[in-house]
From TrEMBL:
Keywords: Membrane, Transmembrane, Transmembrane helix. It comes from Zhihengliuella flava. This is MFS family permease. Residues 1-30 are annotated as: Disordered. The chain crosses the membrane at residues 38-57, 69-91, 111-135, 147-165, 177-195, 215-240, 271-294, 300-320, 327-347, 353-372. Residues 1-19 have a biased composition (Basic and acidic residues). It comes from the Bacteria.
Amino acid sequence: MSEHDRRAIDPVEPTREPAPDSTGQATSTAPAQVESRALWAGGIAAVVGLAVGLVGFDGFRPPLWGERSVALFAAATSGLAAGAGFVAGYLQTIRGTHAWLAARPLLRQIVDGAALVVVHAAIAVMTSLVAFRVFQDAFYGLTVDSYGGGGMLALVAGIAAYAAYDSGARINAASLSLLLAVFMAAGMLVSMLAAENRLWWHIMFSELGTGAAGMTSFWTFNTTLTTSGIVLTTLSAFVTRDLSRWAHTRDAHDAASGRTSRRWLRPRAGVVRWCLIGVGLCMVGIGLVTLHASEPVHTFFVQLLAVILLVLLLGIPFWAPGYPRPFYVFTYVSTAMLAGAAFLWYPLQYYNLTALELAAAGIVFSWLVVFIRNTTAVTGTAAAPGQAGTRPLTRP
């Protein structure tokens, strides 16, 4: 294939081939560089964590959980390590694999970057707290000295920095969707566990964000919703780019084979983009305008989110044609499950509104993860870190 034909197949961004070495074989050091730098990040964070433990636990034996415990120090050190590690890895990827991210408006870059940092730091914090709570229950009454505590902080900080750096350097639509689902689930779980009013679920899910269930639950719930909405708008940029590349590829293949381009079968990246952005903005609105602040506005965002989701789900064969048939079956099964969940709430009154909200959230985020993973598979955009281009799959 000539250079001109190759550019025609992928007009958005040509694929870069790894340069051959002295033996004539292609080499790609980008994945190895990511692992090397991630290990350095983890090592530096581990040293810092050890120092924090030696100083912070000097002169007393802290428990694994409780006041001035290893858990609290681990949550702080792992959160900071994860945030710093992600920033370092993310800066690498926007200079290579996803250089297009740096071409967006500066304000958008700052907001998206801050939201992603919060996601990684929050996951590290929540994981540390849960892990040490479990270990304290398993080893009841255990206390450690400054060396043991420092070693534990070194371990959690090192793992957090390593994993976050790797996540930032290898970020793509599939990994970001899974990260979003984990963050959303963990944040909601923590807000439920932290609720001071144990009967909050008798009302609705938004009760967690009113302050009536306690300030910890209030801040966790609303911060999770707001941050998740921002991350979803970031995710829409990845999905839009993947679908746009694929649409150009399909058109180029049709032109090269002499077939008439069927416009109604062309992926509509713009519709998918605005649907995802709309859902994200509604989540931000729900988190910022709480139920007790303005019930009509809060309810409006909830209802608008439901309408946008229905448009996206029911029209997905038109917005994203050419996907595997099982994906469309899964989409309509998910839609039917949403309708069934609503029917069980009203008119059957089998359960209350909180159960409906939990069921709907689980179904929607499961579908979103599957949709993003199918998009990555169909468009072939899982590039190696550090490479500026990706090789789209041929037209199905």
